Amino acid sequence: MRSTANGQIVTLTAHGFRAELATVGATLVSLEYQGRPLVRAFDPQQPRPVYSGAILAPWPNRVTDGSYTWDSVPQQLPITEPERGHALHGLVVDTDFTLAGRTEDSAQLRTTITPSPGYPFEVELVISYQLEAGGLRTTATATNLGTEAAPFGWGSHAYLVAPGDKVDNWILGLPAAQVQLTEGQRLLPKDVVAVAGTELDFREPKKLGTTFIDHAYTALDFEGGKLARAILTDEQGTGSQMTWEQACGWVQVHTADQEDPALDRTGLAIEPMTCPPGAFNSGEDVIRLEPAGTHQASWLIGPVQGG
């Protein structure tokens, strides 16, 4: 282990995989299979760019205006996305998690969200990383340590990659029949509509090209009623994939359009989520975490090997 601007760095190896984790944000820094990157890595000695690899809790994406009502009590969160006026990506992206255990191929990171303005609840988070034969599995477990029910949601923020340097040249397959539209520069969540007949339909894999995506998808096709699978490859069929369980009924996809050339469309964010953007405002799919109650979600990032 070594200490960096992103906390301690933990390296896992097994089954031809090598993963680097940072304790700040319980972040996935890098993941390779047989030396080939599966996610867009970053230098842990530098500030983490655009939430790369971070765990998002107790909500993913945005709380509009940072304000919501829970059990008839209005709450106001700090505005952490001032350019749009929202509370973004939860409360733990900058938290230095405790390394609670590790082996050569696994690590367990732990923290507790304590009561704070806008979120007066106490929730323990345990993030377990495990290298398996198929890839890196993340299992996220939340437990309500408080005496009142807490609103809760999960997400993760990995940027998947395929061989080549740009999203434009990659092929995406995403088994989602619906997408949530947004309005204006503030990305206010609007209606959920069918993807059929739109450029946002990737149920049949197709080249991303210049398509801009920063949308939450739903109505996912879970294989065998168990796993949803997003696949990102080059034209030879080599790349990466992410699978996740039904606990995450939403997935945010973002083509990573940025002003910084090193970040601009150089990875595709695939973010399984338990609830959509604005969920604390709308109440849609928000988990009601009762006192002593737990919730668990799991996802896996692995390789796709071309022919």
UniProtKB/TrEMBL annotation:
InterPro entries: Aldose_1/G6P_1-epimerase, Gal_mutarotase_sf_dom, GH-type_carb-bd, YihR-like
GO MF terms held by the record: aldose 1-epimerase activity; carbohydrate binding
A Pfam family assignment: Aldose_epim
A Gene Ontology biological process term: glucose metabolic process
Record-linked Gene3D superfamilies: 2.70.98.10
CDD domains attached to this UniProt entry: Aldose_epim_Ec_YihR
Name of the molecule in the record: Galactose mutarotase
Provenance organism: Glutamicibacter mishrai
